[in-house]
Amino acid sequence: MTMKYRLLGRSGxxxxxxxLGTMTFGDDWGWGAPKDEAxxxxxxxxxxxxxxxxxxxxxxxxxxxxxxxxxxxxxxxxLVLATKYTNATPGTDPNAAGNHRKSMxxxxxxxxxxxxxxxxxxxxxxxWDQLTPVEEIMRGLDDLVRQGKVLYVxxxxxxxxxxxxxxxxxxxxxxxxxxALQMEYSLIERxxxxxxIPMARALNLGVTAWSPLSRGVLTGKYHGHGSSESGxxxxxxxxxxxxxxxxxxxxxxxxxxxxxxxxxxMAQVALAWLRSGPVPVIPIIGARKxxxxxxxxxxxxxxxxxxxxxxxxxxxxxxLGFPYALYSMDMVRALMHGGMSDQIAA
Length: 346
Prior knowledge:
alpha/beta, TIM Barrel, eight-stranded parallel barrel, two-stranded antiparallel sheet, about 40% helix, about 15% strand, globular
């Protein structure tokens, strides 16, 4: 197993082809890894060649960042450390959460303290608050870059139109643009292929995928396949995230078939599919146990055949909807290309 590296979007930053998600670092939420197990997961990821670490100010109430601050001592410079701001635990302060400048500046200072570092390699805006003006966010992030507290900025869980607007504004104003995009992406969650993936390709944004195993569903453990160990969610609680049970069952059956063909775990097959798409995707792999991380990392050298990819794509396909469905109609294609579509090279 040899970890490879790629440039993150349009930047010159070299990141490993997997990122370590650390939302599981700490048991404050009742299901994470205690400190000693988190240390083992962290060490194993680094020993595999991984250098891309992903956390957030809110993860396990700040414990994730605190653990990382201790784990990174002596080798901080060799890591690409990413954290996020926006979210806060419910309380009485209306400015404790949000995308605005006050939240941004308070959050970055608190994260730097917990992480015991004087800079963050990649600072994510965690989720769209639907309130803060785009100019305020982009100017605030640019200030952090100019101050040296942040090296690069990224965007997570925002709509494509907003991100395109933000990077266009940054380009016009000479501000720091987003170099990377983080979103949920898996065989079960493919709706990002409608707008976010084409936007990432057009703007040359690095793509990182959270929940690449769809909250553990793609390991098969919730549906009688794969590992027998319990997950952090119940089957009933998962239904709010994936109400199309028939489609989910079809996907799991396809993943199980391919896993049997290649002699690998279902998780490895799901991760190999994610990394085979037209846009390079960096899965964010989180683990409560060392064995889970080791299984995920073993997918690095798994290449699926064209027939296997086709089977997985067909089982998990989504309708792209308007306007993409319109573009695929024979009559429309004939009209928009004057009957010459098969003779015009893209």
